[in-house]
């Protein structure tokens, strides 16, 4: 427990997409073993936090934020080397920047299955014991086997008898018991390897930070087993903004917090308890969604017809009280009856021709209705979000860190500030509200994590070279500090790293690729080294592989010296 309590000191960290960091003992892509040489390097240089993206089983998909289980670790990350299955799959030289996760996973499963069959009695006993301790495995394994059998088809399309999780579990664990225990064994291996890593990191003085996605794939074990925890006719997303005129639709069902509360949030408690076996800190994905979330009819392809959920709405009586019939405006496409006799106003409804063509007297009555309950709703949203976050904190001793990016309403910012939740500040977006200019290092929030890039953005050098005017960047990051203007990519990156480590933020955690000083491929073509481009096809993302082995990266004396000095000078060598 003392180790957890010491985490809140000025620290530097590194964020990695685990499959991207290949070790000399990896099988095709990065795995849990890769985190050992990474940890050795981090400790040597002065980093004391290593952050991972979600490790959940993605099935036939690629995004770890759209997993088929909120609990299960993807077998992709099991280290064959740690299992003493020394199967070599590659030459020392990395020739491609792309992984093929489904192919790699299947090859690993083939190798582990052979070991399983050769040691059946022993490993079945191990799997059975693990199953008794982790009952979530019953539903996950059942779902996983049926998911494979029906080739990733949505569970709602399965034969009727398998729509009943209890029947399905009984069927799989009786008719296909050996196969079921094989999948349990995979989770047992992953658990052992990741929990051992956590202990190893504690001995080294390194904190491991995990990631907890707030939302869950519609085609997942959790939604299949507990559809009551979700509002199935809605999907989560984001409203229109400067980046997307039609907003974002994510496809994930919206959480039914009312039902979750009646179960004492047992699903969340189990998730956090399990996560704590592996991590000291965790990222609360889309923390805004704990307060309210943009909800859209599940079949809509744009987010234009969504609303913030939960919402009181404007009652039919409130329309009638000002002499308006809500059905008229529903026909004009300005409002929507989302529950009987309660209406929401569509986003930017006042821009619609149906609104513009109304007479001024009607507009004067209609528009105020759209703002009628804003103060009450903000109060309700704030209370609801704080209640949820307080409950989360009671479930675990892990330190929560809020992903509070995007358009965060002031009442949520105030709430997170008062709760002293650690937020995140991305340098390229952290600007003055009044002038729109970058802010100096000492003006950064202390209770936050400063970063150059995230898994959803371009790399720092890509942003510098290809996004926006370079002149203000030169003036702020170099001229302002009396530094000569950089003449090379290395010098640009060094200047940005010096800035971000120098911020007031409690933690400064950088994407691994943004630390690639002296790695020509990354510096020359940073656009080829990003992890995810939101809004593009799933299979074109989440496949990135770093161009050199982690051991080779860690052996570069010059780079290590430069990074060590940056961390030391910024006082982050806790």
From TrEMBL:
Q: A biological process (GO) annotation for this entry?
A: carbohydrate metabolic process
Q: What is its EC number?
A: 2.4.1.25
- GO molecular function ontology, one term from the record: 4-alpha-glucanotransferase activity
Which reactions is this enzyme annotated as catalysing? Transfers a segment of a (1->4)-alpha-D-glucan to a new position in an acceptor, which may be glucose or a (1->4)-alpha-D-glucan
Main location per UniProt?
cytoplasm
Q: Pfam families given for it?
A: Glyco_hydro_77
**Hey, which family's this protein in?**
Belongs to the disproportionating enzyme family.
What is the protein named? 4-alpha-glucanotransferase
Source organism per entry reads Leptospira noumeaensis
């Amino acid at each position: 427990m003392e180790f957890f309590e010491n985490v809140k000191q000025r620290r530097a960290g590194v964020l990695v997409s685990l499959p991207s960091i290949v070790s000399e003992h990896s099988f095709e892509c990065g795995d849990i073993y890769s985190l050992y040489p990474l940890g050795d390097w981090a400790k040597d240089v002065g980093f004391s936090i290593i952050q991972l993206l979600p490790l959940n089983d993605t099935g036939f998909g690629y995004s770890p934020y759209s997993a088929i289980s909120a609990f299960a670790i993807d077998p992709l990350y099991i280290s064959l080397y740690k299992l003493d299955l020394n199967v070599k799959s590659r030459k020392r030289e990395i020739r491609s920047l792309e992984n093929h996760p489904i192919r790699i996973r299947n090859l690993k499963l083939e190798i582990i299955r052979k070991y399983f069959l050769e040691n059946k009695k022993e490993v079945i006993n191990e799997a059975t014991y693990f199953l008794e301790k982790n009952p979530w495995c019953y539903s996950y394994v059942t779902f996983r086997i049926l998911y494979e059998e029906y080739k990733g088809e949505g569970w709602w399309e399965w034969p009727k008898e398998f729509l009943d999780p209890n029947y399905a579990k009984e069927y799989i664990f009786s008719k296909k018991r050996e196969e079921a225990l094989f999948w349990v064994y995979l989770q047992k291996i992953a658990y052992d390897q990741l929990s051992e890593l956590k202990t190893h990191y504690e001995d080294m003085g390194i904190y491991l930070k995990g990631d907890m996605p707030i939302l869950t794939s519609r085609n997942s074990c959790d939604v299949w087993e507990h559809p009551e925890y979700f509002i199935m006719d809605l999907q989560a997303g984001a409203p229109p903004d400067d980046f997307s005129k039609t907003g974002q639709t994510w496809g994930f069902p919206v959480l039914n917090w009312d039902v979750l509360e009646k179960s004492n949030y047992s699903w969340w408690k189990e998730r956090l308890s399990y996560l704590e076996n592996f991590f000291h800190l965790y990222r609360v994905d889309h923390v805004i969604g704990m307060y309210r979330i943009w909800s859209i009819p599940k079949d809509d392809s744009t987010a234009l017809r969504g609303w913030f959920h939960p919402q009181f709405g404007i009652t039919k009586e409130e329309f009638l009280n000002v002499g308006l019939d809500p059905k008229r405006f529903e026909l004009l496409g300005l409002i929507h009856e989302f529950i009987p006799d309660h209406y929401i106003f569509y986003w930017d409804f006042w821009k619609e021709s149906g609104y513009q063509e109304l007479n001024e007297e009607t507009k004067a009555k209609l528009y105020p209705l759209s703002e009628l309950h804003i103060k009450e709703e903000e109060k309700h949203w704030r209370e609801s979000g704080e209640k949820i976050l307080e409950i989360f904190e009671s479930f675990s001793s892990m330190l929560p860190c809020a992903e509070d990016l995007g358009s965060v309403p002031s009442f949520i910012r105030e709430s997170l500030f008062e709760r002293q939740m650690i937020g995140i500040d991305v340098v390229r977006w952290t600007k003055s509200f009044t002038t729109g200019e970058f802010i100096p290092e000492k003006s950064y929030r202390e209770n936050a994590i400063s970063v150059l890039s995230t898994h959803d953005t371009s790399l720092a050098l890509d942003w510098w070279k290809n996004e926006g005017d370079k002149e203000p960047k030169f003036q702020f990051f170099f001229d302002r500090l009396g530094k000569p203007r950089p003449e090379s990519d290395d010098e640009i990156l060094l200047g940005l790293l010096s800035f971000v480590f120098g911020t007031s933020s409690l933690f400064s955690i950088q994407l691994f690729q943004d630390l690639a000083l002296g790695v020509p491929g990354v510096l020359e073509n940073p656009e080829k080294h990003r992890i995810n481009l939101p809004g593009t096809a799933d299979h074109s993302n989440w496949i990135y592989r770093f161009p050199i082995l982690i051991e080779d990266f860690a052996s570069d004396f010059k780079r290590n010296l430069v990074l060590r000095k940056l961390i030391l000078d910024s006082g982050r060598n806790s």
